[in-house]
Amino acid sequence: MAATPSYWDYLKLDTLLxxxxxxxxxxxxxxxxxxxxxxxxxxxxxxxKLVIRSVRLGRDELSKPTVxxxxxxxxxxxxxxxxxxxxxxxxxxxxxxxxTPQDFLAFRDKLIPSSGFQSFQMRELEILMGLDESQRIxxxxxxxxxxxxxxxxxxxxxxxxxxxxxxxxxxxxxxGALNEWLYRTPIQGSQPxxxxxxxxxxxxxxxxxxxxxxxxxxxLERLVAALGEDRRATLEDRVTGSRDHARRFxxxxxxxxxxxxxxRRIRASVLFIESYRELPLLAWPRLLLDMIVQTEQQFLLxxxxxxxxxxxxxxxRTGTGGSEGVGYLDKTLSYRVFVDLWAIRTALLPTYALPxxxxxxxxxxxxx
Length: 368
Ligand code: HEM
Known about the structure:
mainly alpha, Methane Monooxygenase Hydroxylase, Chain G, domain 1, binds protoporphyrin IX containing FE
């Protein structure tokens, strides 16, 4: 007969509570601040474990061949968990900051060259979310992934580190699944395999740009009236420049010829969902996009909060991992996975200025 379950056996507390001794076989030999340092990191790694699992679950739901309306709430559910965990991770740095610079210096040197830089779970997370490798910031001449490959393999944990990165790289990403789904999203009622879909998409984008022209012209006049006629030329340049930029982006003129039509449809879908977000049938799609942006925003806040905590504790000295420290970490704040979802915001119009919606009945509006 199976033993009666207990809290301590279920959570394997004997093992869990015996894992905080760091490099010393005996935890009692550690300074109290080092125990604090180890526990805070381990708690983060446990949260990362759950976030990775949730990213995979969300990606798998979104990758199902036809994404029925029932599936999106499930993806949103996973994203909500990720976002809630990351929000806790942001706040948790406050606990780390009870470590003074001197407290840390008392044991810091023995950590060299280990570093959060080797958090393979963070790298898995970036890969599974879909971070484009071309965005990765090197430190010195070292690529963060190559670093793990080079340093791993010497211990069981190091072997696990590289194996997990190889595994993550062999899988599809959340970004890939999202783009697939966006590609299939109906625009003005048209689907990608409809005969004249390309025309419908182009007409939608052209009508949007015409509405943007009208809206921006009115905004320009207001600016000139407020700031003075002598500023007209400069302001006109600025407004036209940002409109031209929006056009290049929406028509995907910044991507290779062979990818243009597909990327244009994906971006048009984002624009469509974001713009007509009040339509009943776009309620879940827009929530999905909102949650993805919120999740990525939490990631950015995590990176930002981490680097400000690092600056407070070690200033601008070289990191234990050998990077330039705060200088390197500040550069990683430029990482964006869901680039299009951020970029589209520059092109959005207020609801009253939107072009007319075609086929509103298809989106749950009986009277248009
Ligand atoms: C006293 C506390 C901490 C200090 C001084 C610190 C410092 C640093 C520094 C300087 C780096 C850059 C790499 C290097 O040269 O070492 C780094 C990277 C990193 N740290 Fe921390 N860290 C601290 C706590 C934490 C905590 C609690 C976490 C939670 C998981 C964390 C996660 C990371 C991650 C994921 C990276 C890699 C960032 C990237 O390459 O994008 N660190 N840390």
